[in-house]
Amino acid sequence: MFAKRSSVLSALMILAVTLISGCATLSPYSISEGELERHLQDAVATFDRDQLQSGSPLSLSLSNADITLGPDGRDVAVIDLGGQVALNALMTRLPVDISLKVEGAPVYDAKEKAVYIRRLQLLDSSIDSPFFKGDLKPVTDTVMRAVAQMLETMPVYRLDETDFAQRMFGMVPMDVRVAPGRLEFVMSE
Prior knowledge:
Layout: H1 2-26, E1 29-32, H2 33-53, E2 58-69, E3 77-89, E4 92-109, E5 114-128, H3 137-153, E6 157-158, H4 164-171, E7 174-179, E8 182-187
Antiparallel strand pairs: 1-8, 2-3, 3-4, 4-5, 5-6, 7-8
């Protein structure tokens, strides 16, 4: 009986070592810029729908979301956003076309199993609307604060718990590393 337990324990140990080394060979799991762009556009659409359902008079739609990962070898993401912010008040819709270019650091939150863009900096912005004349800095600052708040609280990517490999990555201590054109999930050090 002792020999039987010993062989079962040995088999379990071999299986555990195989799984751990298998996870190490699978690493790094990576996400392309295109995947992040699609996830960001979907997340913004969901965010806007939720905001409107909760009674917010502002709506946000993206017509363009271009993400560049690791420009000039730096550990940042540069996001070019183009879209429209609209104030829906008194049965009138007042749209404003916006274009923002922001830079931030991709951060993996292990508890949420998601990637967020944090420490945002505004690189460039423009607003196109017949309703605004003169100094647009207060409007740009307000839009930037709203975008920063949204990106701080809304992930640009979340591990898919229905995918076995991604679920396994979510179970071990992971971090995210910026590489040119992609984000890589790597084992935490």
